[in-house]
Amino acid sequence: MGILYQKINEKINSIKSEFLCNKSIEHNGVKGSFNESELDNLIKEVIPKRYILTKGIVENSEGKQSNETDIIIYDNDILPFYIKNNLSFVPVEAVKYIFEVKSLLNATELKTTIDKFYKFRQIGGISPTVLFSFSSDIKGDELDRYYNYDLDNFFINPIINVLCISNKCYCFKSIEEHYLTDFFTNEEWLNLWEKNGGVNYKKELGFAGDVLEEAVSNVKGKELALLIKSMIQLEIQKQQLNSNDYNLNFNGIDFKSIKFKIHTWNKVHIDDANISNSEILSFLTGISNTLSQKPFGNYLLNNKNIQFKVCAVCYEDMWGNLSCQDFDSNGLNYNVNKFGFSYNSNSENNTHKMIFNITEKNEGK
Fold this sequence. Notes:
Order of helices and strands: HHEEEEHEHEEHHHEEEHEEEEH
Number of strands: 14
Helix content: 25-40%
Structural class: alpha+beta
Strand order of the largest sheet: 3-1-2-4-5-6-7-10-11-12
């Protein structure tokens, strides 16, 4: 058993015990401060020293401010020296994480947190927003509850990116961006283009070749040489179309430049993992890996592979069109990364649209 894992696990057990002790404090503000301090100290153990934790307000260059926030992680290396001391206002560009910490999560606290983080987004905040709670007032699923409070943003740009409820669950929103060429060859794209009403380029090139071949018998000299050269070029182009090195272009769109995003919500529930404190260890691992940009956080899990359930999915094409939106807090029972799609393109008004479909879901798997 790894030393790092043992020591962090002991500290997690300690803050959980401290939370139980703090429950007897009657003043909610004092109680909250104690709990924030415990979590603050734990996070400091797993992130690089260049990042500083503070409590305060985020401000943008126009002077617009967020609400006071329980924990802000900011990059100390990019701050001018004259604002590093006694920092209470953090420039929005320096913020790497922003946290609200609750002793007991209920509907009111959830709504308040959404409102606070929404204001943070309004002033230009783009860093992950985290809601951590030491307990909850419901036995039901926390992601279900959040989904109902943030319906308009849940799939693509949720106001809260991370939920961690002690002794219950850890949930996080993620985005993967891909190029279409990572999944489809030129030949598959040409077939799809034709299937969706586009031109059959092979057929058209073949027709052009037939016309040139017929014209050969009626010309001589230089014109004949030019026709033969054109026929050779057509044949080369027909062969190149299926090569992935060939640059296909449809209505002004370069096939190699087409990108799309897969948005997912992922969750580990304490009942789904064979490891004590799995929800907080996974939570700390996520923060550590993000800020370190290396998998240092894996040490916290003692090299154990915790399986996350994919609970929500949404595909977004490079023009902002959405498809395949689906949510089940118990986990989706199909592979969200196996897909097909249709493609529509209108050169007259320069509009393009991809509609994705998830293969296993359509097959009823």
